Amino acid sequence: MVRNRLAEQAWESLARTQVALMRRFQEDFRAAGVPMRVYDVLCTLSRHPGGRIRLRDLNEHILLTQPSVSRLVERMEADGLVSRGGAPEDRRGTVVTITGEGRELLRVLGRDHAAAIADHVGTALTPDELRTLRALADKLRAAQRAARHAARFADGPR
After folding, report:
1. Which domain holds residue 113?
2. Which GO BP terms, alphabetically (predicted)?
3. Cβ partners under 8 Å of residue 150, min gap 6
């Protein structure tokens, strides 16, 4: 019972902190004239081999629903930040690739965003606390991946 209450309190604190920080970061992106979700897509693409990812997989890495991701990617393509094409292995899926213009925008936004993170997070915690926070967040995320994986296979192969 105590552990359940402690888990609830920890989650509420984490969630409220995340919301407070995201509001500050969104203000920074608004001031730059670029939605934070555009940065999120560009950043995600840059972390994948060749700056490419299938559209359906992109959805797993960012905080938007599939229809919203598709519309956002269409707008980003129109702005020259990404390109879309068929998946070479099966031609049914869509692959999204960051363009040179997208990489340049990411470089500029990333520099400013890193400075904001250092200011809003790095000044509030010691280096040891930052390492602990990263380890705890990684552990929570890994537990959620494992739970999703177990749920997929709970009913046996499909």
Report:
1. 1-124
2. response to stress
3. none
